[in-house]
Amino acid sequence: MVQFLQQLINGLSIGSVYALMAVGYSLVYSIMNFSNFAHGGVIMLGAYFGFFGLTLLKLPFAVAFLLASFGTLLVAIIVERIAYKPLRERKAPFLYFIISAMGASILLENLVIATIGPTFRTYPEVFSKAPIELGPLAIGRLDLIIFVISAVSLTLLILFIDKTKLGKAIQAASYNVKACALMGVNTDRVILTVFGLGGFLAGIAGVFFGMKYTVYPQIGNITTKSFIAAVFGGLGSLPGAVLGSIILGIIETFVAGYLSSQFRDLIAFVILIAVLVVRPTGIMGKVTEDKA
């Protein structure tokens, strides 16, 4: 029982990081009807921003954390303005958006390799590695902080979308962006906000990923699992993205703990194939027009 609870706690920590990443995919998909594969590159930059904020600039963790979050917010907006807005204005086919997204992701990765190098970098120890003892359970301080900050960030995002005027515009645009434009909604502002929100969360996710594992230019490839979590929960559904991420994180942890860590990555792709075969719209997704 103790091992079960221990694995559950670890799964919640990993799942919460996936959730921060997956929400960015779902936000963009809900409005623009395509999967933003440049999102992984933004997450990777967030990990580097936080790392250099702590090591090069010697900033306190809170300041480096905010630097990474707002830095990736700015990067996400720049990516949207350069890679996607011209295509939107020309009413380009969805395939062009996918190609542009992949190009942006490759560009970000290679810019980092060219300027910083491909070396793996390890975050300095910010929090004590001594676990918090709760009876027979040992909860890592970093895992607890990751879970709490992720939960607070996602809750604030949901409140923003549910309670604010701009958030309601995002909800309306997710149903029909063209109809919103005809009704006078500034859809360009809505799209910019969606990318900004996704970018901000990408920075948080990047820092946490770097602290839990390591930092390297190919982090964007690892974030494929967060995309799988978004598909599992239902692309375009924020609650679905969170739920899919938590479930994936828990399943991965249990597979690694009870079977073998060699199957940890494999299980994510098994889930993806199973979802696409059994329920292509995901757990909480709705049947919509064909999207890329």
From TrEMBL:
The keyword Cell inner membrane applies. Its main location: membrane. One of its GO terms (biological process) is L-alanine transport. Pfam families: BPD_transp_2. The chain crosses the membrane at residues 12-30, 37-57, 63-82, 94-117, 137-161, 190-215, 227-251, 263-282. It is a multi-pass membrane protein. One of its GO terms (cellular component) is plasma membrane. The keyword Membrane applies. GO terms for molecular function: L-isoleucine transmembrane transporter activity; L-leucine transmembrane transporter activity; L-phenylalanine transmembrane transporter activity; L-valine transmembrane transporter activity. It is found in: Cell membrane. Belongs to the binding-protein-dependent transport system permease family. LivHM subfamily. PANTHER family: BRANCHED-CHAIN AMINO ACID TRANSPORT SYSTEM PERMEASE PROTEIN LIVH, HIGH-AFFINITY BRANCHED-CHAIN AMINO ACID TRANSPORT SYSTEM PERMEASE PROTEIN LIVH. This is High-affinity branched-chain amino acid transport system permease protein LivH (TC 3.A.1.4.1). It comes from uncultured spirochete.
